[in-house]
Specification:
With 562 residues, the chain is of the alpha/beta class. It contains 16 helices and 28 strands. The chain folds into three domains: 19-212 and 376-457, 4-Layer Sandwich (Metallo-beta-lactamase, Chain A); 218-366, 3-Layer(aba) Sandwich (Rossmann fold); 473-561, Ubiquitin-like (UB roll). The strands form five sheets. The chain has an eight-stranded mixed beta sheet with strand order 8-7-6-3-2-1-22-23. Helix 5 packs across helix 9, helix 6 crosses helix 12 and helix 15 crosses helix 16. The mean pLDDT is 90.
Amino acid sequence: MNEINNKIQDNPRYNPNDLLFLPLGGCNEIGMNLNLYGFQKKWLMVDCGITFGDQLGIEIIMPDIDFIAKQHKDLVGLIVTHAHEDHVGAIPYLWEKLLCPVYATPFTTRILQAKLQEVGLLEKVPLFEVPLNGEVDLNPFKINFISLTHSIPEPNALAVKTEAGTVIHTGDWKLDPDPLIGETTDIQTLKDYGGEGVLALVCDSTNVFVEGKTDSEASVRKHLVKLVKNQKEGRVVIACFASNVARLASCAIAAQEAGRIPILVGRSMIRMEKAARELGYLKGLPPFLTEDDIQDLDRNRILLTSTGSQGEARSALARMSSNEHPRLKLSDGDTVIFSARMIPGNEISVKGIQEQLIDLGVSVIHADEIEGIHVSGHPAREDLKDMYSWVQPKIVVPVHGEPAHIREQAKYAQALGVKKVIIPYNGSLINLTSDEPTIIGEVPHGRLALDGNIVVPLFSTQMRERARLMVAGAVFITIVINAEEKVYGQPHITLLGIAEENAEEETIQAIEKQIELAFEGIPAEYWQKEEVISEMIRIACRRTINGLRGKKPLTTVHIITA
């Protein structure tokens, strides 16, 4: 056993027959979901997702899995609730540290296969397709999939059954009586588990502050059809989440009703449509055209369904807004409809794209402006109330939310009569089977970043240095000396991000002067110590730039001995 696991088992409050819950991502944040259940010295993982970064050249961030990677032989499997990136996106990058079987329903399996193919892991990962409402036996866990509704095909709750009790893990969900695509929520099975007795409900907190019930996807279709019909001239672009297959179908129907031709733009759109069509979710809808087919079409008859609703820098919409898309050019008279709400943190990038579109003369319509063109995929308060009444859990564990969401769901559950709640955080090791749900320890956790094609710790020396480069710039100094206490020529100084072009020479001269002063009076024995001279030059340089510009840049000194 590794050191971390030994610490858990040495914990006086630990009993191997207790059922443990350990989130490593998705608590106190929205996105990057990764949860572990522990029982009888074995572990079950539920979801393995990402969040998105927009600084330091990092676009993908994922949970640090060092804890479970060190004991991957005790990891019986990874269950994926649905195919959203914040639940499935990290698997291609982290699976080689886990080496466990992966289980998912058919649509999620298709999406995972495409992702694994891209990174060369398709033939290596033991990926098992589970039928809707299927069961997986991973001793000592037995897992039943329960159909829910969300904003993607085949979202599932999981009934995680052990000898210590049953946990209902909801994943992401809403209660939609008319989801347009896929099954409705299997209310009867949830009630059946409630009747049998549920130890804990681990539940989505995203919309806990929203009163009432979340609206149906069917209502969006009606509003989109009407809105698109009203756009008489120019291209129409609908920006939405690629994973919302029902929304893609609604866009196609809106196009048909308005006499337009539906076209998909963006690789993720095409991937989702392909998987959905293979599984029969788009029966009756003709194939979408792609951007390659657009050249000879009348611009007044085009409806583009595009990625980019969250301001993603590489999305098709971002490239259209900056006039950099090789085939798709928007102009005066065109209309872009944002059929999505901004995820917290994306406001600046989304607003930036919208402003660029307006500068092109494009009309921009968004969900805050026109009611009904988007609905959430998460449960409002009345939906949560229904779930509690069906499942009747002894404990509610709020997840998938920022701290305020998680605290509010705990408070709301208690107000509705749930006897016990506990507020988790990433790394909190929770005993669900003690008299009261209790945090019995804390597991090291953190974040990893995909830097190019390499996974590195987000707060590594590499990332800290990159942050310093971004904030304060860098200086590189090369100087030639010899043992006779002489410096050959002038130092070679390169500034990056320090001074504007017309002030660069002046700054370099000031640094040279301070280096020259620093060499005066150096004791003879120091000329043999390169590290001493290097540090002396570094300090002189940083002090000079700090005095001139109020910055302390990353400074690297190279000493060449002659």
